[in-house]
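A protein record in our archive is deliberately plain, so that people and models can read it alike. The tokens are whole numbers drawn from a learned vocabulary of local backbone shapes. For reference, a complete record is included directly beneath this paragraph.
>
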Amino acid sequence: MATQIVQNRAGAQRPTSPLPPAAVQAMHRIEHALAAPQRELAAKVGKALGFRGSYQPREDLGETATRHIVWSQVELNAIFERVGGTVTARHVERSTSDGSSTWMAIELILTVNVQGVGPVQVTTDLEEESAVYPTDLPVVRAAMAGAAAPEAVRKAVARYKTNAARYDELSAKPAASLSAAEFYAISNAQQNLAENAGILADAGVLFLVKAV
């Protein structure tokens, strides 16, 4: 039961007698009324994004009416294909709840301009490639396109393509015509291809160079 709070001369708060039920109900009505604009905003955003039911932000996860978190790239891709938007990505550090373990992740951020609301963000961390969590999805491709991709991914893709072109160029020559330097260049290109493919595989975006 709610209690009345009073202040003494020193400014400290102390409870007194319980509030009457009518007063408690009145407080609840006031709180409900004050939260109405946020509920309406969240409902409007949820409808625009295609969320089911009367979706409300999960405050314990840090969500707001204009910032939502989804489970994986699969759910994010469904929203992206439904309403479009701009996708970016960034490297972030995550940790367990007790802080005993940390790891780096790629966060995908979908920004959608909702009419009458403005920019709304939907985010998720990129899960490793699997049958359940494919990575070769439109939303991931959009996030990894050009300047939107994390720097490490951009550099790995560029190095992979450069070395793939060099390897193809030298491999097309008759082996008997290759110089010692060219043999070394082929070996070096193979090593760089493997190294950068590993970087992209660890990031879950090896598909970016599969066709190279």
Summary: Residues 17-51+62-148 form one domain. The chain has two domains: 17-51+62-148, 151-209.
